[in-house]
Amino acid sequence: MTPFLRTPYHAVAALIIAAPICTFAQEQATPGLIARSAVEVQAGATNHLRSTYVLSPNDAFQLRVPEWDEVNDRTFRIESDGDVNLPFVGRVRASGMTIEALEKVLMREIQPYIKASSVSVILVQFRTEVVYLLGAFHNPGAHQLLERRNLADVVALSGGLAPAASRRLRLTRRLSEGPIPLPSAVVDNERKISSVEIVLTSLMEAQDPAENLILRPFDTVTALRNEMIYISGEVAKPGAYELTDRDSMTVMQAVTLAGGLSRDAQPAKARVLRPVMDTNRRAEIPIDLNRVFGGLSADFRLMGNDALYVPRANQRKGVVGQMIMYTVPAVLAAVIVAAIQ
User: pLDDT per residue over 301-320, tens digit each?
Assistant: First the structure.
């Protein structure tokens, strides 16, 4: 198990907690409750946790109010509706608050009944929340998420991407957690999810801060594998070529990678075969390489799984010749048979 969230909180918590708060789960862990026997997060000693951990239903905590013996060291659980039920005070909203914020609310709510000098909330049981890292990560799997973490944090703290990874990430979120707040996100009401693809370079360079989303429980982040482009026909080195760290490649770059055109190529009749999403079909896009190489047309960009085909200049003649070679003898044979009969 490899530590996942290496933050100041963990450095402090390691001194006071008998078991690690957050570890990588290399297998698909089942979300549930993790009881922290012998875990007592001291107020003041773990300021990072107190100011960042967002309370949610099934979290349990103890209260310390020096002037109120009735609640001291009692355990209270946040109920499914997000409230906690306290003596005298009644129901108080706790879900969605940090520990620090709840302490302030409880101090205000308690004052009419007890002139409290301080209120401390000591978290004794966490609700386990996970995010799933799939695909070309160094450490894929289910990972506990006990703090607010953004997408860039998760990529960095997961050990990074494997060599086969592309520069694109796909984030998938349950609609129960709300849709992904990006214009390019796609909502699938049938599967009850929303998803979006994010270019890693723009994420890491903070080109669009909105893409650096705060992850929600049970989000799935998929590191897509390197995609290929395919070059066939009249080029020196036909084959499959990786896009590596690029999102696309121009046809001029592709032809150069393939060693250039052969002597028999017909560049004006080249075409790109592009996959049609969610089908087995490909759309055919004509490309005049003579115009591209001559600077008369824009250099067409090839995307992942595109296939560039450069035909042979005399291919039509060759096909017609083959048809004549096979059909003429058959016709002569039919004539001879008819004459005999």
Answer: 998 889 999 999 875 544 44
The DSSP result for 107-173, as a single string, is: HHHHTTT---S--EEEEEEEEP-EEEEEESBSS-EEEE--S--BHHHHHHHTT-B-TTEEEEEEEEE
What is the rounded CA–CA span in Å between residue 31 and residue 36?
15
Q: How far is CA 121 from the centre of its chain?
A: 35
Strands (E), the chain: 24-25, 33-35, 60-64, 75-77, 83-86, 90-93, 120-127, 130-135, 141-144, 165-174, 186-188, 193-199, 220-225, 228-233, 239-242, 249-250, 270-275, 282-287, 301-302, 307-310
239-242 and 33-35 beta bridge pairing: unpaired
Sheet holding 75-77, edge to edge: 33-35, 120-127, 60-64, 75-77
pLDDT in tens, 198-211: 887 777 777 678 88
The residue with tokens 């591209």 is 292
What structural domains and CATH numbers belong to the chain? 33-127 (3.30.1950.10), 130-225 (3.10.560.10), 228-310 (3.10.560.10)
> Which is higher by pLDDT, 30 or 290?
290
Q: pTM, whole model, 2 decimals? A: 0.45
pLDDT band of 341, cuts 50, 70, 90: low
Higher pLDDT, 241 or 24: 241
Strand residues in 226-330 grouped as ranges (E)? 228-233, 239-242, 249-250, 270-275, 282-287, 301-302, 307-310
